[in-house]
Design goal:
Layout lengths: L4 H53 L10 H21 L5 H12 L7
Helix pairs in contact: 1-2, 1-3
Protein backbone atom coordinates (compact mmCIF):
# COMPACT_ATOMS: atom_id res chain seq x y z
CA UNK A 1 0.00 0.00 0.00
CA UNK A 2 1.39 3.36 -1.03
CA UNK A 3 0.84 6.41 1.12
CA UNK A 4 -0.07 9.76 -0.36
CA UNK A 5 2.14 12.77 0.37
CA UNK A 6 0.02 14.12 3.22
CA UNK A 7 -0.37 10.68 4.78
CA UNK A 8 3.39 10.13 4.64
CA UNK A 9 4.02 13.55 6.26
CA UNK A 10 1.54 12.68 9.00
CA UNK A 11 3.21 9.31 9.62
CA UNK A 12 6.70 10.85 9.79
CA UNK A 13 5.40 13.56 12.11
CA UNK A 14 3.79 10.98 14.39
CA UNK A 15 7.00 8.92 14.47
CA UNK A 16 9.02 12.01 15.38
CA UNK A 17 6.58 12.95 18.15
CA UNK A 18 6.78 9.41 19.54
CA UNK A 19 10.59 9.53 19.50
CA UNK A 20 10.52 12.93 21.24
CA UNK A 21 8.10 11.58 23.85
CA UNK A 22 10.32 8.57 24.54
CA UNK A 23 13.33 10.88 24.88
CA UNK A 24 11.43 13.14 27.28
CA UNK A 25 10.31 10.15 29.35
CA UNK A 26 13.88 8.88 29.52
CA UNK A 27 15.08 12.26 30.79
CA UNK A 28 12.27 12.38 33.36
CA UNK A 29 13.17 8.91 34.63
CA UNK A 30 16.83 9.94 34.99
CA UNK A 31 15.74 13.01 36.98
CA UNK A 32 13.47 10.81 39.11
CA UNK A 33 16.35 8.44 39.82
CA UNK A 34 18.58 11.30 40.94
CA UNK A 35 15.82 12.63 43.19
CA UNK A 36 15.26 9.14 44.61
CA UNK A 37 18.96 8.93 45.48
CA UNK A 38 18.76 12.28 47.27
CA UNK A 39 15.66 11.23 49.20
CA UNK A 40 17.25 7.90 50.19
CA UNK A 41 20.42 9.63 51.40
CA UNK A 42 18.38 12.14 53.40
CA UNK A 43 16.36 9.30 54.96
CA UNK A 44 19.58 7.59 56.01
CA UNK A 45 20.80 10.91 57.43
CA UNK A 46 17.67 11.22 59.57
CA UNK A 47 18.05 7.64 60.77
CA UNK A 48 21.72 8.12 61.72
CA UNK A 49 20.81 11.36 63.51
CA UNK A 50 18.24 9.47 65.59
CA UNK A 51 20.91 6.89 66.44
CA UNK A 52 23.19 9.69 67.65
CA UNK A 53 20.39 11.18 69.75
CA UNK A 54 19.70 7.81 71.37
CA UNK A 55 23.37 7.27 72.10
CA UNK A 56 23.75 10.77 73.53
CA UNK A 57 20.86 10.15 75.96
CA UNK A 58 22.80 7.25 77.48
CA UNK A 59 25.71 9.49 78.46
CA UNK A 60 25.11 11.02 81.89
CA UNK A 61 25.56 14.78 82.15
CA UNK A 62 27.69 16.22 84.91
CA UNK A 63 28.27 19.73 86.15
CA UNK A 64 31.70 19.99 84.55
CA UNK A 65 30.65 19.45 80.96
CA UNK A 66 27.05 20.65 80.96
CA UNK A 67 26.76 23.91 79.04
CA UNK A 68 22.98 24.07 79.29
CA UNK A 69 20.69 24.96 76.40
CA UNK A 70 23.48 26.41 74.24
CA UNK A 71 25.42 23.17 74.41
CA UNK A 72 22.30 21.13 73.66
CA UNK A 73 21.59 23.24 70.56
CA UNK A 74 25.21 23.00 69.44
CA UNK A 75 25.26 19.23 69.93
CA UNK A 76 22.02 18.82 67.99
CA UNK A 77 23.44 20.79 65.07
CA UNK A 78 26.79 19.00 65.28
CA UNK A 79 25.28 15.51 65.27
CA UNK A 80 22.88 16.47 62.51
CA UNK A 81 25.84 17.50 60.35
CA UNK A 82 27.74 14.33 61.29
CA UNK A 83 24.72 12.27 60.22
CA UNK A 84 24.48 14.14 56.91
CA UNK A 85 28.19 13.64 56.18
CA UNK A 86 28.02 9.94 57.06
CA UNK A 87 24.99 9.28 54.87
CA UNK A 88 26.34 11.19 51.86
CA UNK A 89 29.69 9.40 52.01
CA UNK A 90 28.34 5.86 51.82
CA UNK A 91 27.03 5.63 55.34
CA UNK A 92 25.53 2.46 56.68
CA UNK A 93 24.15 1.25 53.37
CA UNK A 94 20.60 2.01 54.41
CA UNK A 95 20.28 4.80 51.83
CA UNK A 96 21.35 2.46 49.05
CA UNK A 97 18.81 -0.15 50.15
CA UNK A 98 16.04 2.47 50.23
CA UNK A 99 17.09 3.73 46.78
CA UNK A 100 17.00 0.22 45.32
CA UNK A 101 13.57 -0.34 46.83
CA UNK A 102 12.25 2.95 45.42
CA UNK A 103 13.75 2.07 42.04
CA UNK A 104 12.07 -1.36 42.07
CA UNK A 105 8.68 0.22 42.79
CA UNK A 106 9.08 2.56 39.82
CA UNK A 107 7.30 0.72 37.04
CA UNK A 108 8.09 1.93 33.54
CA UNK A 109 5.25 1.47 31.11
CA UNK A 110 6.44 1.06 27.53
CA UNK A 111 5.28 3.59 24.99
CA UNK A 112 3.56 2.17 21.94
Amino acid sequence: MTLSGSERVFQVSAEKELADLKNLKSKALQADEKRMQEVAAEFESLFVNELFKSMRRTVPKNDYLNGGLRQDIFEDMLYQEYARKISHSGGLGLGEMVYKYLLSTQKEKPLK
